[in-house]
Amino acid sequence: MERIEPAHIMNMIGIASKLMSENRDYLIALDQRAGDGDLGVSMHVGFEAMSGFDAVEGNSCGKLLMRLGMILNEAAPSSLGTILSIFFTSGGKAVKDEDSLDRESFATFVKCGIDGIMQRAKSKPGERTILDSLAPGSDALQKAATLEEGVKDAAEAARSGMESTKEMAPVHGRAVYHADKIKGEPDGGAVVGYLIFKAFAEVFG
In a 3-state reduction of DSSP, which class is residue 144? Predict the structure, then answer.
């Protein structure tokens, strides 16, 4: 695939929704170790709501991505739901006038989405969060020569980033007080980030 159209984005959201559903119980278990427990439910509900959006016609890719972020924020008012809504809306705003996306503009969407998270959440890679899978994926996408190569490399980089969180000390939220319980397990948010890049690779690769 050389360019991403709005319909491709909705296909990706559908795959991501399926992955969130399949991993719902796993995400709940990871989140319970960290002192919460709503992650699997909020991601399942949020992505299901996004996948139900059917007004693709007349939307540019950027506007569609921004709309999906708003839907996610409304459907999944959890901490990660809010963070991911920032990812989609900030990234979508950066490419809001693009009817379709090539590798460069898609990489811009991802990078600006991550920048939005870092600015709003006051976080950075290395703090055991979703950024630890999103940021490596973004870096791989920036370096790739083609979209197909980029999304595949990004998914692998995101998976490695997710795995790296197993030995990271948490910096944010209740997880700080449960550091001993979560050591050796990946961060739930980082798992979600990897699943999103996996969906990218399945549809855009």
Answer: coil
Domains annotated for the chain, with CATH where assigned, are 6-204 (1.25.40.340)
152 by DSSP, 3-state: which? Answer: helix
Tokens of 123: 């976080």
Map tokens 């998976």 to a residue: 159
Pairwise CA distance, residues 45 & 75, whole Å: 7
Question: Tens digit of pLDDT for each residue in 50-84?
Answer: 999 987 777 899 999 999 999 999 999 889 999 99
**3-class secondary-structure state, position 119:** helix
Instruction: Say whether pLDDT at 179 is over 70.
Output: no
Q: Where are the alpha helices (DSSP H) in the chain?
A: 6-22, 24-33, 39-51, 61-75, 79-94, 103-121, 131-143, 147-164, 179-182, 188-204
Token pair 């690779």 is at which residue? 201
Q: Are 68 and 35 in contact (CB under 8 A)?
A: no
* Chain CA centroid to CA 96, Å: 18
Query: 73-102 burial, b for 16+ CB within 10 Å, e for fewer?
Result: bebbebbbbbbbbbbbbbbbbbbbebebbe
Lowest-confidence pick of 28-42, 74-88, 92-106, 175-189: 175-189
**Ramachandran angles phi, psi of 101, nearest 5°:** -120, 135
Residue 52: what pLDDT? 95
Q: What whole-number distance in Å separates Cα of residue 14 and Cα of residue 20?
A: 10
